[in-house]
Write a structure and sequence with these properties.
The protein starts with a strand and ends with a strand. It is built from no helices and 11 strands. It is mostly beta strands and 124 residues long. Strands 2, 4, 5, 6, 9, 10 and 11 form a 7-stranded mixed sheet that branches. It has a 4-stranded antiparallel sheet with strand order 1-3-8-7, with no helix packed on it. The protein is globular.
């Protein structure tokens, strides 16, 4: 089992950048593919990015390509989402997720572990 805690959310102006971090505790961090989702008010949770167990493979949703970068540090049991050129539509609660199968991290219903979420607000 793995516990996930996000940090780094906050208020940023449109066009700005923000870095989210997720610290994982529990055994076997290297056994989990990791990712990020978000949920805006009145909308369903949306897949953003996934990174493989080793970090050698990453995947981005079309809405984040060229703007968001996912990375991980297996020595520190952390993942990071670097977000650039933020827009008002990026305002949402952002969630760190984990699963032993990377393929399970592309749909919210198949994700095994969720963090508590961190709020990101982009002002226009």
């Amino acid at each position: 089992q793995v516990q996930l805690v996000e940090s780094g959310g906050g208020l940023v102006q449109a066009g700005g950048s923000l870095t989210l971090s997720c610290a994982a505790s529990g055994r076997g961090f290297n056994d989990y593919a990791m990712g990020w989702f978000r949920q805006a008010p009145g909308k369903e949770r949306e897949y953003l990015a996934v990174i493989s167990r080793s970090g050698s493979s990453t995947y981005n949703a079309d809405s984040t390509k060229g703007r968001f970068t996912i990375s991980r540090d297996n020595a520190k049991n952390t993942i990071v989402l670097q977000m650039n050129t933020l827009q008002s539509e990026d305002t949402a609660v952002y969630y760190c997720v984990a699963d032993q199968r990377a393929s399970n991290l592309f749909q919210s219903r198949t994700v095994s572990y969720w963090g508590q979420g961190t709020q990101v607000t982009v002002s226009s």
